[in-house]
Every structure is written in structure tokens, then in C-alpha cells.
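[Meeting: bench + compute handoff]

Bench side (C.D.) handed over the final construct sequence. Compute side (W.E.) agreed to return the predicted structure before the next meeting so the bench team could plan truncations. Sequence as handed over:
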Amino acid sequence: VQLQASGGGLVQAGGSLRLSCAASGSIVRFDALGWYRQAPGKQREWVAGISSGGSTNYADSVKGRFTISRDGAKNTVYLQMNSLKPEDTAVYYCKAEARGLGANYWGQGTLVTVSS
């Protein structure tokens, strides 16, 4: 399984970006898909997740600003990020969970930089 994240870049505070994570195969086989981020000097943290049933959850820090979604036909999961803040600056990673296999798959990361 390969995950390819894209869509990062430099944006001013208050702006928007949409991240994409394309899987090498069908995403419907995964129990959950999620986005994580790691800011410089900090540990990686969970940002948002979507279950196989379509339920979504968000970290408190992004709730109301970020939206996770998926497109099964394109085997892609998205993270729409609005009202971006400088503290959202980080490398963003996508993750796919296959719990029956006890396996987690990670994308390579895409850098988001929010200027003040």
C-alpha cells in the first residue's frame, strides 16, 4: 500500500488549503483514514479521522475549521483546511488503518506553512 500526500504550500493566515492523499488501491478496505501533523520540535499529533462508515472526528484545535472527506472512486482522502492559523504550520501526514491486519500505512507528508 502506498499513500501519496499532496496539496501543501505557503498560505497567509485566514487562508485555505486542501490536502489530498491518494492510495495505491481501494480505500474502502481500510477501517479508518486519518490526518496527522508534526510541527517543528513537536511530536506528531492526530488532526482528523474518518471511519469506514463515514463518521468523522476532529482534534479540538481544528474543529470547525478543517473537514476530512473521502472519494472512494478516486481512492483519495482529503483534508479541507479553512481559517488557517500560524500554529497550523506543520508537515501533514495521512494514515490508513487496516485493523484486521494490525497494519498502519503512512504517506510521506506534505508541508503546510501559514504566515502571519
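W.E. noted at the follow-up: The radius of gyration is 13 Å. C.D. will use this when planning the next construct.
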